[in-house]
Design goal:
The structure holds 3 protein chains of 3 kinds.
Chain A: H1 2-8, H2 13-63, H3 82-87, H4 95-126, H5 132-142, H6 147-164, H7 173-182, H8 187-198, H9 201-209, H10 214-225, H11 227-243, H12 246-251, H13 260-270, H14 276-310
Helix pairs in contact in A: 2-14, 4-7, 4-8, 4-11, 4-13, 8-14, 9-10, 11-14, 13-14
Chain B: H1 3-24, H2 30-56, H3 60-78, H4 83-109, H5 122-133, E1 134-136, E2 143-150, E3 153-159, E4 165-168, E5 175-177, E6 180-181, E7 187-188, E8 195-197, H6 200-205, H7 207-211, E9 215-216, E10 225-227, E11 233-239, E12 241-244, E13 249-252, E14 258-261, E15 267-268, H8 286-293, H9 295-330, H10 338-345, H11 347-350, H12 353-363, H13 370-375, H14 387-416, H15 419-427, H16 432-460, H17 463-469, H18 489-498, H19 505-529
Antiparallel strand pairs in B: 1-11, 2-3, 2-8, 2-11, 3-4, 4-5, 6-7, 9-10, 10-11, 12-13, 13-14, 14-15
Chain C: E1 2-3, H1 9-14, H2 16-29, E2 43-48, H3 50-67, E3 70-75, H4 78-88, E4 97-101, H5 105-110, E5 114-115, H6 128-133, E6 135-136, E7 139-140, E8 142-148, E9 151-155, H7 166-175, H8 192-200, E10 207-209, E11 215-220, H9 225-239, H10 249-257, E12 263-266, H11 271-276, E13 281-284, E14 297-306, H12 312-323, H13 326-336, H14 343-349, H15 353-362, E15 366-367, H16 374-389, H17 395-411
The chains are: A mainly alpha, B alpha+beta, C alpha+beta.
Chain lengths: 311, 537, 412
């Protein structure tokens, strides 16, 4: 457009100056926008491509009815629901059970972890006792023990436990949850501790002056105030439970008791790229609960994670 | 008004409301006590049940631990003071049972020779040795067998080739009795008054006792003993080894050579030949000494250690830098589509991590993967097969997996930095970079440093990523330990413990104890350095 | 006194009701200590990988129907079966029975995890190679179930006739305009097993064999000149793009299904999938690439018996009186497609062209060694082949290093 203008107005010197000023201003405007806003969009879009394309790829593969790794490279070359149908009709691989198990185990673990963590964080934040400092540090450090070898120990422990309490033995989903809860205190407690510290002490003091017991203060006053961090910890623990493979594969033996991580891995380990399509559809569905919960809690996470830590 | 103040005000209002509520409800303190009684009651009932079960199984140590543990918990909750313990007990009990047990067990194993050939207890080894030392006598017929319970003991009733019935047990060699055995298995005999012949499903009730029965064929030990493995037929066996309990030696029945327990976890003869399998024994600090003295271990260990540090440091740095950069980028209220961007950016974190690694492995396939076929138009880049590229691939994939977490963390941290500080600096004419360098970044670091430390520790032991993406490969030829270029310490430990012909669980445990000490120490020191725990005092 | 006993379990099943009546009459006259426990049936636990689980499920349930012994088939991936046997059995846990390939025998026996099985007279009913495969230090450690070896599978649309030589094979593929002259899987982790017939066609073997056919683990022959010739060949083929570590087992299969090559070197376990994909395939012996006969490894799958089993009688009955029978071996073949190890069942299914083709290819085959040293060998061997195919150095040098490594591990 500016070229056109320039050509048509070549005889009018003054006009020419005007238009060139105009274009300059226009460029300036774009430049300013780029400096203040545009680059943000460019960066965001670039990283969104990096973040999103593997997921787009998986989604495309899940709709591809040929369903092998080799045939999945053209995105959305074919659209069919065959893989999804197949997913729920596999002999030996009860996908629907895995799905329900994963969600249930994940939710229970998350809820219980939050509760246990909150109790501990309250103690560390509000109560004064000897060994408090070292205690907080040690529960964080203990979680750093490499899990790979503890698998054998956990196996032995659960078989012995199962001889006394059958519902806590190998192949029990309750036992798996208990093992997960063994790690409920850790970095999570530290995150919560930070957030608890931001709640002014006068609040519980006032409540106690008014005659509320410590339990009442904790449950009815403190917990509602720290709900953002509870949401965050709940979500983090849900995500890590859903993804956990090593312990779950040791504890859960029979297919209908397994979680998605265990079942899907056993399913793809032998015939990896041949089952690519079915595997992809399984992965897409597996991601849904996490994504839904995640998007739902997004605003909590942003405020919850760091308000406490910054203080 | 800044966000911080806003929150403070909200809290003040809330405080007033709460206080007034509490005031109305004093006296309604009965509920907590009821809950406490019910919960503790359930716990005690469980313990009691377990205690009885343990009593029946004669497991005194565990019984003692259970009783003491239950006692302590009750004590914690019934005494009037010691509030902290009441809040910490649930988490700590679970931590003690499931985490500390695993750590102590590994610590114990680190001092044993647990591994190939030394897998179980001495009893298990002796059982296996006796099982494999049984040789069937070549001329022995396969006798049709009936098992009878005579008093408290079992006897074999077999029929020889002349259709004569023979009976015998562990102490009494086979001898003839009168009677007949029908084709369908029924037995008529007047000489078995005290005996009850078992049917098959009764045999199944006490299989271990019946298969361990060995009935001498005659008074001559060279004729062998009758044994059964299917409960329906019996054959004569001769054992090539005899275990002498009093002297704790295995004796070769032919040469009379003695194999003694010499304390190394195996029966060994004078020539130094050991019988397989052996069993697990305590070897003191031997595994730890081997870690630092055996040459074949040292060289791969140092190389892997170096890469592990590179990997975990780079993983934390790359994810943190990208996350922080994104957070700064999106930290502008005027920006459009922020929520949409944010939702897409957290997708990798929401996607189950173990699946992501597999997906990336597929996409990075040299010939047929999406990356080479589509992004690089068919160039065959050996992402997972060339040592350096594989390392880069591992870091990039981990960046993909990990940056959303850092992005969220930094975004929250940025928002909680007081606006007035930044505004004041801007008024003073400080450049954007200077504001970031001297105000934003240091404040941000205070809050995220502890998370960076725990992320470092997590990546140090990030077994899943390595195992599912490259399995440690590409392999390096010339190392007898099968250690690949992308193996980190923990995947190396896994290989030592579970892969190959000479699995060495004891050595692997020693390794993991060392790793734990190092990571724990580094983290503890860093935590102190960040003074993040300072405010406790 | 008249009491019922059994000769064979089958007899019980036949007369189940009669005996049940007789028993109750009997036990009422005797002590009553067993009456309560009789209702509790024995349960044997079997570990199997995905392929075998499918084949076993029906067989197991019909065994339960006829004997009342429950069979619990637990599916695990093959790698963790071996690992978990070694960690769990010594703790008194683990299964009663596990299905696995014969090359595990040495390691599992050394760890005291499995026990010898008394096959009795039935031993001679099995193919000799399958019994030899589980013979470790003179004892048979498993009930053989299937025999398998790789062979040349061809797509008859692209290559109607079996090739007469390696060159004939390559030429046919060229004329058919195929992308690959043949498909041979390697994968990231290497696959010396599938490669072995090609390697032996250069005259190279792992160990020297004694006159009776057993392996002399002390005499490692893999590093000799013939072995190095094979290494050079590997490297050349990789340079031409025919061999690649990207070609995993399943990618090779899907390339074959897509018609990108008329030939694939693979085993009977893939035949059902190929049939399902609607391909017309035929099986023949593998032509020689190096001049000597191509000798694939003959692997045998079998049922191992745990050394710590508390159900030895039930498990032995399941194995010897049931899995070892012609009917069941045939049923397992139908479900899994692997040629049975029991001679009579094998002969029956040998009518099948596929089985015949694999048998043809396996005629020159050698049993897969089951010595403990084997797992050290596999590792270095696979690694070396991966390195050669990835062009990570001089092939003969890599091969030489490998031989030295294996020797060192064996000497330990």
């Amino acid at each position: 457009m500016s070229n056109k203008l320039r050509n048509s107005s070549s005889t009018h010197a003054s006009h020419d100056v005007m238009t060139s000023n105009l274009t300059k201003r226009k460029f300036n405007k774009i430049f300013v926008w780029l400096r203040s806003q545009g680059w943000r969009h460019i960066v965001a879009i670039a990283v969104c491509v990096f973040a999103g394309f593997p997921i787009l790829y998986i989604f495309s593969a899940s709709l591809n009815n040929r369903g092998t790794l080799v045939s999945s490279n053209t995105l959305f070359s074919s659209i069919s629901s065959d893989n999804y149908y197949e997913l729920f009709h596999m002999a030996q691989h009860p996908y629907a059970y895995w799905y329900v198990n994963t969600v249930v185990i994940g939710l229970i673990t998350a809820a219980a972890s939050v509760f246990i963590g909150a109790l501990a964080a309250y103690a560390f934040s509000r109560l004064r006792f000897t060994g408090r400092r070292i205690g907080l540090l040690s529960i964080i450090v203990v979680q750093m023990f490499p899990q790979v070898l503890s698998i054998v120990a956990i196996y032995l422990l659960l078989t012995k436990l199962g001889e006394i309490y059958p519902f806590l033995g190998i192949n029990s989903r309750i036992a798996l949850i208990m093992v997960y809860l063994g790690g409920a205190m850790g970095v999570n407690t530290y995150l919560m501790y930070g957030f608890f510290n931001t709640i002014p002490k006068e609040i519980d003091e006032a409540a106690q002056i008014d005659g509320a017991g410590h339990a009442r203060t904790f449950f009815t006053i403190i917990l509602p105030l720290v709900s953002p961090i509870l949401a965050v910890i709940g979500l983090l623990s849900f995500i890590s439970t859903v993804s956990e493979y090593a312990v779950a594969s040791t504890v859960l033996v029979s297919p209908e008791k397994q979680t998605l991580a265990v079942g899907m891995y056993a399913f793809v380990s032998d015939r990896f790229s041949q089952n690519w399509g079915v595997f992809s559809s399984g992965a897409v569905l597996a991601a849904i609960p996490v994504v839904v919960v995640f998007l739902f809690l997004q605003k909590y996470i942003v405020s919850g994670l760091t308000v406490g830590a910054v203080k | 008004m800044s966000k911080q103040e806003n929150i403070q005000n909200k809290r003040k209002r809330m405080k007033k409301r709460i206080v007034s509520q509490v005031g109305n409800n004093v006296g309604a303190n009965i509920l907590p006590i009821v809950v406490k009684i019910v919960l503790l009651g359930m716990l005690d009932a469980m313990s009691l049940y377990g205690a009885f079960a343990l009593l029946m199984q004669h497991k005194w140590v565990v019984l003692g631990l259970l009783l003491v543990g239950t006692g302590v918990i009750n004590w914690i909750y019934w005494r009037s003071h010691g509030l902290a313990a009441k809040y910490l007990a649930p988490g700590i009990v679970l931590l003690l049972i499931f985490q500390l047990f695993a750590i102590s067990y590994s610590a114990y194993i680190a001092f044993t020779n647990y591994g190939t050939g030394h897998n179980g207890t001495k009893e298990v080894a002796i059982t296996a040795l006796m099982q494999s030392s049984l040789v069937k006598k070549e001329d022995s017929p396969k006798y049709p067998l009936s098992v009878a319970k005579c008093g408290a003991d079992y006897s074999f009733i077999v029929q020889d080739s002349e259709e004569q019935l023979l009976v015998g047990d562990n102490t009494q060699p086979l001898h003839h009795i009168d009677g007949t055995r029908n084709a369908d298995g029924t037995i008529h005999s007047s000489q078995l008054q005290n005996c009850k012949v078992l049917n098959f499903s009764q045999i199944l009730q006490d299989q271990s006792a019946i298969v361990s029965l060995s009935v001498p064929v005659s008074t001559n030990p060279n004729d062998g003993v009758l044994r059964t493995s299917d409960g329906q037929t019996a054959s004569a066996y001769i054992s090539t080894f005899r275990y002498d309990k009093s002297s704790d030696t295995m004796i070769d029945t032919k040469t009379h050579e003695q194999y003694r327990d010499n304390g190394t976890g195996a029966f060994v003869n004078d020539a130094g030949v050991a019988l397989q399998p052996g069993w697990r024994v305590n070897v003191g600090f031997q595994n730890f000494i081997r870690l630092f003295t055996v040459k074949e271990l040292q060289q791969p260990f140092l190389r892997v250690l170096l890469w592990t540090i590179e990997f975990s440091v780079l993983s934390v740095l790359t994810t943190f830098i990208l996350g922080l950069f994104l957070a700064i980028t999106l930290n502008d209220d005027r920006m459009k589509f922020r929520r949409l961007y944010r939702s897409i950016l957290i997708l990798p974190y929401a996607f189950p991590a173990f699946l992501s690694a597999l997906v990336w492995a597929g996409m990075l396939n040299e010939k047929f993967g999406f990356i080479n076929q589509v992004v690089f138009h068919g160039t065959e880049i050996p992402w997972l097969h060339a040592p350096t590229l594989a390392k880069i691939a591992v870091i990039v994939v981990n960046l993909w997996l990990g940056f959303p977490y850092m992005f969220l963390v930094c975004m929250g941290a940025l928002q909680s930095i007081p606006h007035d500080l930044v505004e004041a600096a801007t008024l003073d004419g400080a450049s954007r970079w200077k504001i970031f360098r001297y105000i934003t970044f240091p404040l941000l670091l205070v809050s995220v440093a502890p998370l960076l430390i725990s992320s470092f520790a997590m990546n140090f032991n990030n077994f899943n990523l390595i195992y599912m993406l490259t399995a440690g490969g590409p392999v390096q030829t010339g190392s007898s330990m099968n250690i690949g270029s992308t193996d980190i310490l923990i995947s190396m430990v896994y290989k030592i413990a579970f892969v190959g012909a000479n699995r060495d669980y004891g050595l692997a445990s020693a390794f993991s104890i060392i790793i734990f000490l190092v990571v724990g120490l580094v983290s503890a020191i860093s935590f102190k350095a960040t003074k993040s725990l300072e405010e406790l005092n | 006194m008249e009491v019922f006993s059994t000769r064979r379990i089958m007899a019980i099943i036949a007369a189940a009701s009669t005996i049940a009546l007789g028993l109750s009459a009997c036990s009422s006259g005797n002590t009553s200590d067993t009456s309560s426990s009789e209702s509790k049936n024995a349960t044997i636990t079997v570990w199997a990988d995905a392929d075998h689980t499918a084949a076993l499920k029906d067989v197991a349930s019909s065994f339960t129907k006829s004997t009342g012994i429950n069979v619990k088939v637990i599916q695990k991936d093959l790698g963790s079966v071996q690992k978990d046997l070694i960690t769990q059995v010594p703790a008194g846990q683990g299964p009663d029975i596990a299905i696995g390939p014969n090359d595990w025998t040495g390691l599992l026996a050394t760890d005291g995890v499995i026990q010898p099985i008394d096959l009795g007279d039935a031993q001679s009913d099995f193919e000799k190679v399958s019994i030899d495969a589980f013979n470790y230090q003179g004892k048979i450690y498993a009930l053989p179930y299937s025999i398998e070896n790789v062979a040349l599978v061809r797509n008859t649309k692209l290559a109607p006739n079996a090739p007469t030589s390696w060159d004939d094979m390559v030429n046919t593929a060229k004329q058919a305009n195929a992308k690959y002259p043949y498909l041979l899987q390697i994968g990231d982790q290497g696959d010396a097993y599938t490669m072995y017939p090609v390697q032996t066609s250069f005259g190279s073997s792992v160990f020297a064999q004694n006159s009776d056919g057993s392996y002399d683990a002390k005499n490692l022959t893999i590093g000799n000149e013939q072995g190095k010739a094979f290494a050079s060949w590997l490297s050349e083929q990789a340079k031409e793009g025919i061999l690649s570590t990207s070609i995993t087992a399943d990618i090779a299969l899907s390339k074959f299904e897509a018609g990108e090559s008329p030939y694939i070197i693979t085993g009977p376990w893939n035949i059902p999938a190929l049939k399902k994909a609607g391909l017309n395939v035929a099986v023949s012996a593998i032509p020689s690439a190096g001049g000597q006969p191509a000798q694939p490894f003959v692997g045998v799958n079998g049922f191992f018996l745990s050394s710590q089993t508390k159900n030895k009688i039930a498990a032995t009955n399941f194995l010897t009186n049931y899995v070892g029978t012609e009917k069941v071996q045939e049923a397992l073949y139908k479900a899994g497609g692997l040629p049975p190890a029991l001679s009579s069942a094998f002969e029956k299914v040998a009518e099948d062209d596929f089985v015949k083709g694999f048998e043809e290819a396996g005629k020159t085959g050698v049993p897969m060694p089951n010595v403990t040293e084997m797992s050290a060998v596999w590792q270095s061997w696979n690694n070396a082949e991966v390195s050669i195919v990835n062009q990570q150095g001089d092939p003969t040098q890599i091969w030489d290093n490998m031989s030295g490594e294996i020797q060192k591990t064996i000497n330990k």
